[in-house]
Amino acid sequence: MKDCQMKDVEKGLNINIRGGSSDGSIASRIELQNVSIAGRGTDGESSDCGIYLWTNYYPDVATLVEVSNCRIYNFTKGVGITAYVSSLDESESAIENAGKQMQLDHLTIVGCNTGILYGCHVLPVIKNSIIAGNTTTLELQGTNAQEDKGKNITYSCLYGTAKDDSLSDYGTGCITKDPCFADAASGDFHLKSAAGRWNGTTWVKDTVTSPCIDAGEASAAYANEPSPNGNRANMGAYGNTTEASKSASGGSTDPSDPSNPEQRCKHTGTEVRNQKAATCTAAGYTGDTYCKNCNKKLSTGKSIAAKGHSTTTKTQKATASKDGKITTTCTRCGTTTKTVKIAKVSKIKLSKTKYTYNGKKQTPSVTVKDSKGKELKVNTDYKVKLPSGRKNVGTYEVKITFKGSKYSGSKTLSYTINPKSTKLSKVSAKKKGFEAKWKKQSTQTKGYQIQYSTDSKFKSGNKTVTVNKNSTTKKTISKLKAKKKYYVRIRTYKTVGKQKYYSDWSKSVKVTTKK
Q1: H/E element, 510
Q2: What DSSP element (H or E) covers 144?
Q3: 252 has pLDDT over 80
Q4: Closest to 206 in 3D by CA, of 186, 176, 181, 237
Q5: CB 306 within 8 A of CB 315
Q6: φ, ψ at 167 (rounded to 5°)
Q7: Are the C-beta atoms of residues 189 and 200 closer than 8 Å to each other?
Q8: If residue 197 lies in a helix (H) or strand (E), which one and from where to where?
Q9: pLDDT of 84
Q10: What are the tens digits of pLDDT across the range 279-300?
Q11: What pLDDT score was predicted for residue 261?
Q12: Which run of H or of E encompasses 98?
């Protein structure tokens, strides 16, 4: 497998080679080259692993597993490489040969909880690699592993190791200096170089040179590295590749050395990076100040408090047919922060819609409620316009106009004033008829209506006679059936315009006609 990438993985590669034929032989080998495996970061688990190797020793295979030029990183809670290697033959020479069968060359292992976990009694060979920025560089399990520690790790950079690690735990050519990655946080593990570093597009020059350049094993291949290459391979995943950083000519390569160009920089050109404007809901950042020449951060910025919303309100007023609403909106970001419903006006009533003339002004009260039953306030939420007069017989209109900050529109309701009633003073029987007499009611009346029926409840068979003068006080009804019982009642009326208004009917009087 070569030239591939894996991102946000729980388990990168699981290589398990066990068994084989009766004599321990195996027909093939495993090779990984230029593979990038990135873990899940803080979202991961302790069981996460970049590469898991589990093999037995096979006497007839020179190199069973070869992993080269690979980048394994961001297994924040897990392990970069877990290696469980055992030998069918537990002699010292067999154990040593078993370790050589697993070659891990030019690796970069960064940002893991454990860089490498060794198990069983065989130590794989690791060389020309960078194991940096891990909580623990090497964890050993098994008697031989604990005794030999990291002697099979040679010509490698071990930086940022646990406090109990030391170079004495590892093999020849190892260093413990900052490898000076281009941008480890973004997964760029090219080594900084004053002579030239590949940034993915072109070659750029840094003011510092990594100590891992030209620090690989002297016998390691380097021909694929661009010139100048110091005739020696670089450590890490880009060693002996066309993207290997170039060798610097002269000067210190250690960033902690005072003679290094970065230490001598006067920081005459600066720029602000990482600045972020504050929004209504999120804090901002003033930005960090960096030297443009040596790329050093000169000062750390400060947090800028979130601005908070600056709001304005807009009201859509409720009417008698539609709900309204009050919308609160931020003038800076346009976010609607609050919407309040205004219930529509739905119940508009007069306390009374029918009156009887009494010579005085008669005015009903007004009640207005919204659809939720809340009573609105007169002169605040609405006003009432009363008609003139309101004393004589007729129809009167009351106009209710909605007002204020929440309501609009209007509604007109009406009520009537009817004539005053009269009553029958005497009903006398006549031959096939009767004579009705009543009390005169001349104020706000035009005349009278006399109604008679054989039904005491006047539900059927009613006959009505109109008397057009309000000065008349008696009326004879004839041509009825003889010796028939009738029920008689009377009411007043008045005509206003084209409409007639009637008083209530009087109490009925019973009469039986004569023969």
Answers
A1: strand 509-512
A2: helix 143-148
A3: no
A4: 181
A5: no
A6: -60, -25
A7: no
A8: strand 197-198
A9: 78
A10: 999 999 999 999 887 778 889 9
A11: 44
A12: helix 92-100
